[in-house]
Amino acid sequence: MVGESARLHQVFRLIDRVAKSDATVLIYGESGTGKELVAEALHHNSDRSRGPFVKVNCAAFVENLLLSELFGHEKGAFTGASSQKPGRFELADGGTIFLDEIGDVSPNTQVALLRVLQEGTFERVGGSTTQQVDVRVVCATNRNLEEMVQRGEFRLDLYYRLKGVVIESPALRERREDIPRLLEHFAQKFADGVPKHFSPVVMKHLMRYSWPGNIRELQNFVRSILLFVEGHEVTMADLDDFQDFFISGEFEDISVELPDLAPRPTFAPAATQTDMGRDPEDVLVDKIVNQGMCLNELKKRLEVEAIKRALLEADGNVTKAAEMLQMKRPRLSQIINGTEELADLKALLVG
Predict the structure, then answer these.
(1) According to the model, what pLDDT value does residue 12 have?
(2) pLDDT given for residue 238 in this prediction
(3) Positive or negative CA dihedral for 186, 191, 195, 199?
(4) pLDDT at 343
(5) Of 212, 182, 238, nearest to 3 (Cα)?
(6) What is the Cα–Cα distance from 205 to 248, expressed in whole angstroms?
(7) Of 161, 116, 174, 135, nearest to 54 (Cα)?
(8) Exposed site from 87, 94, 270, 326, fewest CB < 10 Å?
(9) Residue 334: CA atoms inside 13 Å, Cβ hemisphere, count?
(10) HEC assignment per residue over the chain
């Protein structure tokens, strides 16, 4: 995950907070924003990282095939089912399953997903034996599920199960300062042995483009244009033959500044880039003394964040969270019920 923008760091912080829990995560974002990368980061930074990470594009299958793909089938379950086949949930046992385009699943599939989310059980298509799995579920969609619920296209109970924790993957136009670093990243990736880079003028020009296809569109652009660049630098002249590439978006009349492109570490959610390697106490003192944060405000924020983490780890179980925090349960319940964001998180976790 490449970038230094504030929007992307919000995603990093959320990943860091929820990765080690088993809470269901719903990733929202336009097509091409890197939702799958967010799901992979959640898996690889979790206690399930040694288990499988199984991906399913729910929009790629018709209903019957999707049910078979997710839950497997028995021999003879339908024409062409010549042998028993395990589904993706079975293959993901002990790990994480990533259900992309969850908003495209049919009502029957929604019922089956609700059951496996609630109970961890299902039957293969054409079978009667109940299968049990231990799987962490991460979903993604570019559709508005809440609006789909209101239209009767998506089950309300499944929606509440899926939105245990919501992460929004920002559109590229919302993190324009990351475009130069992404351009350089893909230039190195597709250089084919010949180092190439983008001139500062070209970078600024491309920062003004709206990129409706987001990172996927930018990646395809870099891959394509490097095939035609003879020198080591992509210039404005090289863009002349690619005007048709930008026909679906627009160049906006905005002021942009090139960021510092010095090498930085890639995604490291356990700490912000500026705080890495520093003593935690020094970081907190800096926030109080140099950044003007009130000590009482910092104490309250730390309390809320610690309780959030404990609730996520305990899947909303207040008794377990109290044990983790070494607090009395009545006191913890009082804080949770008196803090809107904690009360909302608990409600989402326990359903």
Answers:
(1) 92
(2) 92
(3) negative
(4) 82
(5) 182
(6) 16
(7) 135
(8) 326
(9) 5
(10) CCCCCHHHHHHHHHHHHHCCCCCCEEEECCCCCCHHHHHHHHHHCCCCCCCCEEEEEHHHCCHHHHHHHHHCECCCCCCCCCCCECCHHHHCCCCEEEEECHHHCCHHHHHHHHHHHHHCEEECECCCCEEECCCEEEEEECCCHHHHHHCCCCCHHHHHHHCCEEEECCCHHHCHHHHHHHHHHHHHHCCCCCCCEECHHHHHHHHCECCCCHHHHHHHHHHHHHCCCCCCEECHHHHHHHHHHHCCCCECCCCCCCCCCCCCCCCCCCCCHHHCCCCHHHHHHHHHHCCCCCHHHHHHHHHHHHHHHHHHHCCCCHHHHHHHHCCCHHHHHHHHHCCHHHHHHHHHHHC
Which residues, 6+ apart, have CB-to-CB distance to 118 below 8 Å? 161
Distance CA 301, CA 318 (A): 19
> Does residue 277 come out as left (phi exceeding 0), alpha (psi in the -120 to 50 range) or beta?
left
> How far, in Å, CA of 218 to CA of 234, rounded?
14
- When the pLDDT of each residue in the chain is averaged and rounded to a whole number, the result is 86
**Is the separation of the CB atoms in 70 and 55 below 8 Å?**
no
Q: Kindly tell me the burial class for residue 270, based on how many C-beta atoms sit within 10 Å of its own C-beta (0-12, 13-18, 19 or more).
A: exposed
Buried b (16+ CB within 10 A) or exposed e, 338-351: ebeebeebbebbee
Model pLDDT for residues 130-163, shown as the tens digit of each residue: 889 999 999 999 999 999 999 999 999 999 999 8
| pLDDT lower than 70: segments of the chain | 262-298, 348-349, 351
CA end-to-end span of the chain: 31
Longest dimension (CA), the chain: 71
HSE value, Cβ hemisphere, 13 Å, CA-based, for 84? 7
- For 276, other C-beta atoms within 10 Å of its C-beta total 11
What per-residue confidence (pLDDT) applies to 265? 46
